[in-house]
Specification:
The chain is of the alpha+beta class. The chain is about 45% helix and about 15% strand. It contains 15 helices and 14 strands. The strands form 4 sheets. Strands 1-3-2-4-5 form a 5-stranded antiparallel β-sheet. Helix 8 crosses helix 10. The longest helix has about 35 residues. The radius of gyration is 24 Å and the shape is globular. It starts with a helix and ends in a 5-residue tail after the last strand.
Length: about 400
């Protein structure tokens, strides 16, 4: 009898838990179904506004980098072009000065790629994404057999804080300690274990050099800080990229299991759904302009975060143009017209060449030419370029 009673209680408990789960799912489905729908064009205008691309912002370069939660910076020039498209009164020297003064740094953070962050963000966002860096090390385990990763971290820190090291120098020094290991795996493990920044003159406008690395703490003269909280980072992401889904945020950050943070924040947020029914979260007071708000042409750099920070990129990239900014191992600079990707551009010799994917109207062509002239005045004031429409992708 006791056994049967226990089983009945267990069954009742399981049924109650199941009912709660079903109710929770039902509530979520009802909430999603009841949420207003946002078209791709509405999402486009909202995202462009937050990305400072509907109109140029009076923000300083420092404030813009902070608002945008960093700029993708695999190459030296893209962050400069990214801000030229977004800010009123920007000059390349302004951003270069932040790097020279160590108010901003180049460091691996989101998606395991180099980003240009404010010094403050570099010290909190890097530890936030550490779990993703730990997973990255696992891909190189075969080359790290017999390597004590704790010891590797200590030795690598001593090396780069004694003097900045190139990746080649780091590989060679670590290989002397573990000659049986794969040199490249050793260097990757050091990069994943430590918050390594690229020291100047790397990244300076017109004065760049090869990559040399030291720790963020050593370069900035400040101790490590606690990781930014997932909840606070979700709010910052939505302010710069929303409205967005959980999967969108995970695509941007390279982190997983972010649903819990969104659920904790749900009472503070508003929800929508896209045309496919996916639930989108947003800040209640964030701008969501009319979908017909004019969006001027913009010349963006390769790897601009606007095109990389959502799982569903149709808010910027029409399905017909998906993948057209890539050719083999080459990435081309995107051109936006009416808020959407319509072509690519590139400076070739003494000309800025624009290749259209979608035929522009005469009026649109004139606006694109005007924007190109402005961009060239900002970025290359002492050089004369022709502007022509032609072939960029061979």
């Amino acid at each position: 009898m006791t056994k049967r009673t226990t089983t009945n209680k267990q069954t009742a408990t399981e049924q109650t838990a199941t009912e709660r789960t079903v109710a929770k799912r039902s509530t979520k489905q009802t909430t999603t179904a009841a949420s207003p729908q946002l078209s791709a064009r509405a999402l486009n205008r909202a995202t462009l506004d937050r990305q400072l691309l509907l109109r140029r912002s009076p923000l300083s370069a420092m404030a813009a980098v902070e608002h945008l939660v960093g700029l993708q910076a695999q190459e030296v020039k893209p962050p400069y072009y990214a801000l030229a498209a977004r800010l009123d009164g920007f000059t390349p020297e302004e951003l270069s000065g932040l790097l020279a003064e160590r108010a901003a740094v180049r460091i691996v953070t989101m998606r395991s790629t180099i980003h240009l962050h404010t010094a403050d963000d570099s010290l909190t966002l890097r530890p936030l994404v550490q779990p993703a860096r730990d997973r990255e090390i696992n891909y190189f385990r075969k080359g790290l057999v017999g390597v004590d990763l704790d010891r590797l971290g200590v030795l690598a820190r001593e090396l780069v804080e004694a003097e900045p090291r190139t990746m080649k120098q780091l590989r060679e020094a670590l290989s002397a300690e573990w000659p049986q290991a794969d040199p490249q795996s050793l260097a990757v493990a050091a990069r994943c274990t430590l918050p390594l920044v690229q020291v100047t003159p790397r990244g300076l406008w017109g004065r760049s050099a090869q990559v040399s690395l030291t720790t963020a703490e050593h370069w900035l003269g400040r101790p490590a800080e606690p990781a930014a909280s997932p909840d606070a980072t979700v709010l910052r992401y939505l302010a710069a990229f929303g409205p967005a889904s959980v999967k969108d945020m995970q695509t941007w950050s390279g982190l997983t299991r972010m649903r819990a943070a969104f659920e904790r924040l749900r009472p503070e947020l508003v929800t929508f759904r896209d045309e496919s029914g996916v639930e989108l979260f947003d800040l209640p007071d964030a701008p969501r302009p009319d979908p017909e708000t004019p969006a001027p042409p913009r010349f963006l750099p390769e790897f601009d975060n606007l095109l990389l920070s959502h799982a569903d990129r149709t808010r910027v990239i029409p399905p017909a143009n998906r993948g057209r900014t890539w050719q083999a191992n080459t990435v081309y600079c995107p051109l936006l017209v009416d808020g959407f990707l319509v072509g690519v551009w590139r400076i070739l010799g003494d000309a800025l060449v624009i290749e259209e994917f979608t035929k522009l109207t005469k009026a649109q062509g004139g606006e694109v030419t005007q924007e190109a002239e402005r961009m060239l005045r900002v970025m290359h004031p002492d050089v004369s370029y022709d502007i022509r429409f032609g072939t960029v992708i061979p």
